[in-house]
Amino acid sequence: MGVIIDPLAFRKKLSDSVFEFYKPKTVHLEVVFIHGLQQGKCEDAYWKTWARDGIPENLWPRTWLPKEFPSARVLALSYDASIKRTATDGRMDLFLLGENLIQEMVDFGRIGQNGVPVVFVCHGLGGLVAKQIVISGNKPQFSQNQKVKNLLQNIDAFCFYSTPHHGSHLAKSRLYLSGGAKGPLLENFGVLDEETGRLNQEFERFKRPSWHFHVVAESHEIPEFREMVVAEASSRYANATHMTLNASYMDICKPRSEKDSSYQCLTTRLKEVLDRHVVSLPFAIESLAMESLVRFQKQEESVRGMLKEFRIVGLIGMGGSGKTTLAKVVYKSICNDFERSSYLDDVKSKGTLDEVLVTLLRQFGIKNGKTGGEAQLSDFQDSKEMYLKDLKAFVKEHKVLVVVDDVGSEENFSHLLACMDFRNGREDSRMIVTCREWQLLSKHAPLVGKYEMKLLNGSGLDFELFSHHVFKVAKSEPQRREFLQEYLSRDASGTLIGDFESVFIDIVDACAGLPLSLEVMGSCIGSYLRDCGVSSGDCLELWRGALQQFRDAEALDGAAARNERLWKSLRISYDDLGPSLQEKFLDVACFFCGSLRYDYCSLLRIWGGKASDFMDLKNLQDRCLFKVNIEDGIVTMHDQLRDMGWSIVKGDGECMSRVWTDQDVSRVLQSKESRATVGLSLGDWNKASEAIMRGKAQETSNWWEILFSKLRMDKPMQLNCPNLRLFDLHEVQGNICGSIVMEDSSSVHWICLHGVKITKVPKFVWKCIHLYALDLHGCTNLKDLSEFVGNLVQLLELNLRDCGNLRSLPESIGNLVNLSSLNLRGCTSLTSLPPSIGNLVNLLSLDFFGCWSLTCLPPSIGNLVKLTRLDLFMCKSLTSLPPSIGNLVNLSSLNLRWCSSLTSLPPSIGNLVNLSSLDLCGCGSLTSLPPSIGNLVNLSRLDLYGCESLTSLPPSVGNLVNL
């Protein structure tokens, strides 16, 4: 259980509007209390509304609720709710209130950011405030705010205590009985008036089908007024559960005991929320930011218990059993207890352990001892001894947590322990390791404790998980039956319901409790239900066919055979895809889920950015064949699905469509023509070549020696793959890249030279005139992009991030009229831009983050009218913006943070009417803001912190009503 703040400080103030009553160590639920109208001062209304007799000891949201729901985070909102308008109170209307609250909720309270359900508990006007929060969150100024999107996505329920959905005669008349000026919030209490109608109509437009509503109504009159504040008819809400209590408006939210109906009603609803969330939570888990699962709670507790006894805990289980998910759940719940933590993802798939160690160094914050820069693979290999010395010293001095996901081999594990000197580190440091076989870790017992993964069969969760993916909404047995009955009624096939249910049960049994199989197979057969062109009878036959394929999987012995059986069952979903979807699945499996990972938008551009590509990606995601990280959009794939993709490709023998292993690459390089090859990665082959050249290879055949002797003599490397689409040269030696000659490059759509030490781009690249994406990220020695870049007129994405020696861009870059993303982040030597950059009229995102030598933007920047995001963070040599910046009318985010030489903003900035975020933090030389700043009516965020030379603000700032 978490810690309740002591009675003298019973709440933690997170902001002026957000207070926290209770925070558990592991959060499974967030409950937000919102008070109603107040006759007098309202500073304490956020807690006194709920506290019997108005004392903190009787504040049940912080006393009773945490005892019954120890994993629930409990918060309250505070706002100016005065019924009367004075010089200091009752001055904010509902519209401004909603925008202010939602901003503080997500920024300071981090409400809705934990991947758990959010429940609003509202008294009186508080219910209307909750509605306005939802309405405000759907306004254009928040359309790009991921935090607001997260909050709306995670809302599960509203509990309304005496909320006047249709107004209140008494609430409006009380003002006139007591006298005084009317507060603006009172306008929302009119019975069936225009403002009440607007609020209800807008909320109905934005509310989501997954939300649940509950009403608790009063039945007692207020003695002094001989009338109820909220009539029962006004408290009712369509499709909500309804309960009328023996209480007045003032007492309805102040239960006298835990058996009181008022309290029992809420706790019943919160239990329902958690029951619903048992299955829905797992699908938010995709990254280091993944949140705890209710269905993993017992396993999480067991692992945490073992970590008290063992310094290292191994999570052991077959592929697809949930090892990685459980590791992430535990990591998320305990990482804050450590000084530093590191999550090493999918270690087995990395080319070398050096890559893993570089990730560890970065996550621990260990810099290059000579340059002070972030650890890079290239300098790690040159200064390995220095880095490992610093790593061992760090582990010895700090309490650290390390998760090693899918360690792969005993050799990998032993090497990592030795490099960290973990045994001699602090006794309170901990490590979690996932692998499929205990033998990989058993050598290190008793340092390592063994935890065997538990499958879902027999728990009931297997049926719930499978149901979620088949039906999307129905999880329980009655819900499943209701869904099937409705589905079968469309073609009068109701008699088939028993057959469907029988096959459903058989498939769940065949999945044997394996979460991955349940997800993938559920999504596969569920797609048949949603295909309008498939009759009920045909759908049933497709279900039966899927079941038969499961049963036809060969019963093989041994670990490898278990993997093969799983692949055969997963392949049912792959075989059901059309050719285009199969191609994209194999692309991701072979090239985009290892060391190189791209976000959703980049993958779309790599494939051409067509509407059909978008639909294909969505289809693959809906079928759970890959997932998208909620925070950064990175596409990820389960290692068993990846391995299945590899096995499919390797099953084609010498006609493999995608080639990445050293021997297969060598075969392609030696062949006169390889028409089957659509994807080629030289990464593994390059590492093998380095080993040979350093004399570290175990075995070397004659043709290897001949091939590499040619490379050493800078002989050209002929490559004849006429159908090649994807070409990965990630961290390949520069001389190899420079020696490549392509016979036919007309089909190449993506080239990755990430991290290659080249001073200029290899010539073969400029002949790939149908290229969609060129990745030069981390080419730190690159000085010249060449005028030939202008030949790549089909290019959609150009990534020059961290090309620290790139001094300029060629004029010909203006030929790239289809470009939608240009990333120049970290190009620290870039001083200026060519005027032709204004020709990139389809550009949506332009990133100059950390380009500290950039002195100005050309006037032609104003031609980029489609631009939505311009990032100039830490462009500390930038002194001004051109007046043409005002032409960027679609710009929603302008980041000028730490532009320390910027002295002024042009008046034309007032034309950026769609701007929602303007960051001027650290602009110490900025002396004034133009009066036109007041025209930015959609601005919701303006950061002026550290603007030391700014002595006053123009009066027009008062027009920025959305701040």
UniProtKB/TrEMBL annotation:
Domain of life, per the record? Eukaryota
Occurrences of domain NB-ARC (ranges): 303-472
Question: Biological process GO terms, please?
Answer: defense response; response to other organism
* Disease resistance protein Roq1-like winged-helix domain boundaries: 582-650
InterPro entries in the record, alphabetically?
AB_hydrolase_fold, Disease_R_plants, DUF676_lipase-like, Leu-rich_rpt, LRR_dom_sf, LRR_R13L4/SHOC2-like, NB-ARC, P-loop_NTPase
One Pfam family, please name it.
WHD_ROQ1
Spell out the Gene3D superfamilies in the cross-references: alpha/beta hydrolase (3.40.50.1820), P-loop containing nucleotide triphosphate hydrolases (3.40.50.300), Ribonuclease Inhibitor (3.80.10.10)
Instruction: Outline the extent of the Disease resistance R13L4/SHOC-2-like LRR domain.
Output: 766-899
Q: Name one GO molecular function term.
A: ADP binding
- Ranges for domain DUF676 come to 25-173
- Annotated coiled-coil positions are none
Keyword annotations: Leucine-rich repeat, Repeat
Output this protein's name: NB-ARC domain-containing protein
Q: Which organism is it from?
A: Ceratodon purpureus
